[in-house]
Amino acid sequence: MELTWHGHATWHVSIGNTDLLIDPFFSNPKTDTDPDELDPDYVLVTHGHDDHVAHVGAFPDATVAGTPEVVGHLAAEHGFDDDATMGFNLGGTVELGDAFVTMHRADHTNGLEEGFEAPSGGSCAGYVISDTKPTQVSDEDSTTFYHAGDTALMTEMRDVIGPHLEPDAAAVPCGDHFTMGPMQAAIAVDWLDVDHAFPMHYDTFPPIEIDTQEFVNEVAATGSDAEVHVLDGDESVDLSAL
Asked: Which of 34, 112, 115, 242 has the lowest CB atom count within 10 Å?
């Protein structure tokens, strides 16, 4: 499984022959990537805020997946055909090419248009992405990545996602102000019991500018054994090789 961080909450995940793009927003200072350079099979959206869906329309050949409310809104906005969208919901697992994607909730607000003034788009989401179908039998050969979405700290990370969906790595928002800050994001990493942690959703706007060393220090302070990877924008890592 190869992961590429394009800044903010935008991740490109390659599993086998399947390319997933999460929360496409390329108007951020961490990326030099032009959306036209990418050709994902699926675009996953965690919620409807502009800094997570701004460039969905750049991928007309991809299938857009997310909650029915957000996907329906984006389909109407961008003119996607019905067969180019997939609405699913919290707790559901769908097979997207070579990937198994489980949606879990994220604690955050969910306006659907500029200015955050539109009616709520329902629950926000995070995604647990694996190369094997999740079961109650632990699969040591699987590789699993958790994109937490825009979220506050929530006990489901400790009680459900960590012990039962068993992510090997997690990307957690840590810019504070609109999501968790470094301290609570570090607690999330500890609760998830992951081997690898990636900070995201920071330094895009003045209110979320942080020193990422704070996050590194806070993870260490929890006693977690997780290795923190502070990626440069557009940097890729092979999760299976870490």
From this structure: 115
Question: How far from 142 is each of 69, 131, 233, CA to CA, in Å?
Answer: 31, 6, 27
CA gap 149, 134 in Å, rounded? 20
Q: pTM for the whole thing? A: 0.96
CATH code for 2-241?
3.60.15.10
> What was the pLDDT predicted at 116?
43
> Token pair of 70, please?
């957000």
Helix (H) or strand (E) holding 235: strand 235-238
Q: Is 141 exposed, middle or buried (0-12, 13-18, 19+ CB in 10 A)?
A: exposed
CA dist 123 and 111 (Å) reads: 10
The 3-state DSSP class for residue 192 equals helix
pLDDT tens sequence across 133-150: 998 877 778 999 999 999
Query: 154 is written with which tokens?
Result: 């929530």
Mean pLDDT of 148-174: 98
Query: Is 123 within 8 Å of 110 (Cβ atoms)?
Result: yes
Could you read off the pLDDT of 21-79 as tens digits, one per residue? 999 999 999 999 999 999 999 999 999 999 999 999 999 999 999 999 999 989 988 99
Mean predicted lDDT score pLDDT of the chain: 94
The two counts, helices (H) then strands (E), for the chain are 5, 14
The CA–CA distances, whole Å, from 153 to 46, 181, 194 equal: 16, 9, 15
* Residues sharing a CB contact under 8 Å with residue 105, sequence separation 6 or more, in sequence order: 90, 123, 124, 125, 126, 154, 156
Domain ranges of the chain: 2-241
